[in-house]
């Protein structure tokens, strides 16, 4: 029997606020680097008599995400207590939203293998994170520094049909959250975590199969591999005459295998009820409108604009758009480049090539680069508009600029890298090269015309790489054809 997969994702994203969801304890990017249990207070430790207060900025960022994902923000939402017992949950329950979430009924558009998909979003709600457990041979320790950190949970519809679609949705959602300034996108530090709900059914059936949930996936690779493995596991069970049972699974990334964590709970097992210490959250239309007015251009729209207005290749736009800082740098470089005749595609080529290489070598982001967008455009003007330098020199100049922060003009002057394009000088060099290379000249005249590249290389060597390559090739060809005429 042919089966199809049905996949939905629950995404937990840490909300980038200064303080926790229900108390004034500060939030730091990586709680694992702090002394344990130092960023805590009576509220996030659930000491008797401590009362939670909702973080207004977390709500504002949640609304921001909801609007970007085309959700309907609810005028009234309710925080509830979700009861379960685990050592990293100090209250014995989690404050979250369930029946009355912050937002409902949205969608995210993604491209999968040049195919358009619209993934529905069921709801978006706010909640608090748990603490963190550290397991060792001598027992388990708990650190509550992370307890109470704001989380945004985004629950999709079961609209995905393959691991590739799930991965594309997760990547696109991460890009949106980073663009919104809501999340850093650092999955290694747990800033975003994925949980996949997976079931299978006969191809063409409209009935959902029994689902399983794969918890706490913290990379796109882990998400894709785990979902693929679970689809294969469920198909094998059904083909052998068995039944898939409702379970919560984990993923061992090192061994690339699934393992059972526990039998899957149902909603009633958590005994949800409205938190009596937190009144219903009212969101006014004026507040929603003011947040909507501040939304930035999002990655998908930005990519489409670059392709349409700048003539960029799709693949280059896809590489440049996910990082908001990098995309802003590119836009600024294009703006300066257009003012002096540099094509946007040339800027993109250098960004995805040399700039990426230099950033990777320095393990730093674009915000730490010592080369401004204006100076990158100035370098490309020297190369493509003024023919003052050649490509090899431009690469060397850019490296120096990354080290020193100097202007390209200053580097050219200091290192003597101006390109030689004087026909008289290049003809003199070509004359010497041809005179001193009788063997290669004879081979060229006997039909080995690809040797023209060797002559260009000799001219470049004689000029220490300063000759304009196209001009050097043309002069070499003219002189060699002149030799042919003289012989025959």
How would you sum up this structure in a few lines?
The protein is α+β, with helices and mostly antiparallel strands.
Overview of the structural elements:
This protein is an alpha+beta fold. The protein folds into 3 domains: 3-291, no CATH class; 299-415, no CATH class; 423-487, Arc Repressor Mutant, subunit A, CATH 1.10.10. The protein has 15 helices and 16 strands. The protein has helices at residues 56-68, 163-179, 220-239, 285-292, 299-310, 314-320, 324-338, 344-362, 373-385, 391-404, 408-415, 423-435, 438-445, 452-462, 469-487; strands at 3-14, 72-73, 76-77, 80-83, 93-96, 103-112, 115-128, 132-136, 139-143, 150-156, 192-202, 212-217, 247-252, 257-263, 273-274, 281-282. The strands form 4 sheets. A 9-stranded mixed β-sheet has the order 2-6-7-10-1-11-12-13-14. A hairpin with a 4-residue loop joins β13 and β14. α12 (423-435) crosses α15 (469-487). It is elongated and about 100 Å long. The relative contact order is 0.09.
Blueprint (SSEs and pairs):
Elements: E1 3-14, H1 56-68, E2 72-73, E3 76-77, E4 80-83, E5 93-96, E6 103-112, E7 115-128, E8 132-136, E9 139-143, E10 150-156, H2 163-179, E11 192-202, E12 212-217, H3 220-239, E13 247-252, E14 257-263, E15 273-274, E16 281-282, H4 285-292, H5 299-310, H6 314-320, H7 324-338, H8 344-362, H9 373-385, H10 391-404, H11 408-415, H12 423-435, H13 438-445, H14 452-462, H15 469-487
Parallel strand pairs: 12-13
Antiparallel strand pairs: 1-10, 1-11, 2-6, 3-16, 4-5, 4-15, 6-7, 7-10, 8-9, 11-12, 13-14
Helix pairs in contact: 2-3, 6-8, 7-8, 7-9, 9-10, 12-14, 12-15, 14-15
